[in-house]
């Protein structure tokens, strides 16, 4: 579109590290393998939680939500990334970018909030076991889940709407494997410095309260476990699994979104994005399954049924 002899772009080209690597086919094969691992691992975990009555508890309800978020996150990126490479076409419209940003940010924020809810659930289960059935009854679980999804979808509107309203008259090349709002801000013709500072403040406002909830919950859990050694092994096993996921996800998110634009590089952003959207969703089922006796028992029962 032309306006005052200036081209306003409505179509963009995704130019991430996959198109610049010396062996793109090898990298793509690795990515496809990770996509398959994400889909199979999370779908299996969802199925186990659905069919095994021993997994019908608040902890596994939240874990099923986490698996669903991981699936959605990967499906938002994986199919397009793969088909674009195979077709040798990396184009995407502005509306397509807006939708992709909205879903990516929604799933990421939902996961941040859900991890806080999961830590609160573990705090109640370990520190207040007698009151736990009442404090974490089904209506409470559903209410917490509604807050998680509602907060995520509302917060995700800010970057996606802002990106959709910007004029793009410079380059139309996005140096990223998918539409990412920091990358889009670099292409805008308007001054985005105010929004960039606002985005950092919003990131702090979004990330710190859930992270504080997680830290306080696990400090209380640690104190309780040290006072009652009889329950320590199982409780700490579950907690370490959760903390491993928290460390991976929050660490990558803070590195990605809490840095000023001047400190960003396309390669770093691609690597961190892969960590958030593919590697972490791939590892989550493994972390929770391998360190969780209940899930392992459910998996054994499933295999026994399939052989009979």
Key structural traits:
two-stranded antiparallel sheet; disordered N terminus; 4% strand; Rhopdopsin 7-helix transmembrane proteins; mainly alpha; 3-stranded mixed sheet; 308 residues
Task: Describe the protein.
With 308 residues, the protein is mainly α. The chain has a 3-stranded mixed β-sheet with strand order 4-3-5. Strands 1-2 form a two-stranded antiparallel ribbon. The protein has a single domain, classed as Up-down Bundle (Rhopdopsin 7-helix transmembrane proteins). The N terminus is likely disordered. Strand 1 and strand 2 form a beta hairpin. It has 10 helices and 5 strands.
Q: Beta-strand level of the residues, as a percent range? A: under 5%
Mean pLDDT: 82
Spatial strand arrangement across the major sheet = 4-3-5
User: What is the number of helices?
Assistant: 10
**So what's the overall shape?**
globular
The portion of residues assigned to helices is: over 70%
How many beta strands in the DSSP annotation?
A: 5
CATH topology: Rhopdopsin 7-helix transmembrane proteins
Q: Give the total of domains.
A: 1
Overall structural class, as computed from helix and strand content, comes to mainly alpha
Uncertain ranges: 1-5
Task: Please write the string of helix (H) and strand (E) elements.
Answer: EEEHHEHHHEHHHHH
Give the CATH H-level superfamily. Answer: Rhodopsin 7-helix transmembrane proteins
Please give the largest β-sheet.
3 strands, mixed
CATH class: Mainly Alpha
> What is the CA-based Rg, rounded?
21 Å
| CATH architectural type | Up-down Bundle
Terminal CA distance: 64 Å
